[in-house]
Write a structure and sequence with these properties.
With 179 residues, the protein is α/β, with parallel strands linked by helices. The chain has five helices and nine strands. Helix 1 (23-34) packs parallel to helix 2.
Length: 179
């Protein structure tokens, strides 16, 4: 029997956070050996960089649900991860992804990158084998550029196409949906 679901919550005292960078290669090795059939992954308060995360995700091609939250002491959700999750990137990851959740700080000025990522996963060429359409998007961001009173600013057009979107302004806030 293979591992299908993995939830990892990184909880650590501030004073040892510098030592956690060593976790990234160990986690990548674990993914390489064990996670090729993983379908659901939740990583909370990730204590390493986007590049290290991408290295792990590259070993999980069957992943259909990804829930990630970065610890702001290390990194933010930004260009590296958004580019590689975009199906139009030459070395994209997670072709079967149907549900995507971003939690925590998101780099400023990435709204268009998130929009482009969602578009690449909603407008899929039917001839592309082994690629799934994104069905659910959840944003829990501490940056107001991505979310205002009316919801995620750039994503209203995807709702009419059937994308289920939930959003909130940060960790632990009540999530709302777009209609």
């Amino acid at each position: 029997m293979s591992l299908r679901t993995l939830n990892v919550y990184f909880d650590y005292p501030k004073e040892i956070s510098a030592d956690l960078a060593e976790l990234a290669p160990a986690l990548a090795g674990f993914f390489q050996r064990s996670c090729t059939r993983l379908s659901t992954l939740k990583l909370t308060k990730i204590p390493f960089s986007q590049n290290a995360l991408i290295e792990c995700l590259a070993f999980s091609p069957s992943l259909v649900s990804l829930d990630i939250g970065f610890d702001s002491r290390w990194d933010r959700i930004g260009k590296v991860i958004l580019d590689r999750l975009n199906l139009n990137h030459p070395t994209h990851v997670l072709p079967r992804l149907r549900s995507l959740t971003f939690r925590g700080p998101i780099n400023m000025f990435v709204e268009e990158l998130v929009d482009t990522l969602v578009a690449s996963r909603r407008h899929i060429d039917p001839k592309r084998d082994g690629v799934a359409m994104l069905e659910n998007l959840t944003l829990e961001s501490t940056f107001p550029q991505l979310v205002d009173e009316d919801g995620p600013l750039l994503f209203h057009r995807f709702v009419s196409e059937g994308l289920n979107i939930k959003y909130g302004k940060g960790w632990g806030h009540k999530l709302q949906g777009l209609d």
